[in-house]
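Notebook entry, structure prediction.
Reason for the run: the old model in the group folder had no record of what sequence produced it. Starting over properly, with the input documented here first.
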Amino acid sequence: QYILAGESPEEEPESETGGEEMPLVVAEMTTEIPTLTVSQAVMRMDLSDVPALLFRNSGNGG
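New structure, fully documented this time:
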């Protein structure tokens, strides 16, 4: 589980680039995206107790 917390403006340190903010990369990784039917995806979500699942739908050519 990932929780993102932003800093309040008074807590932000001054950047050395003249106030220009750079985007923050939280996590970057390579993973396999499974090809499933919708019912298989729902079953995986139920068994894994996760709120979302990224998958290719095999019912429409995935």
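Summary: Helices lie at 38-48.
The old model has been moved to the deprecated folder.
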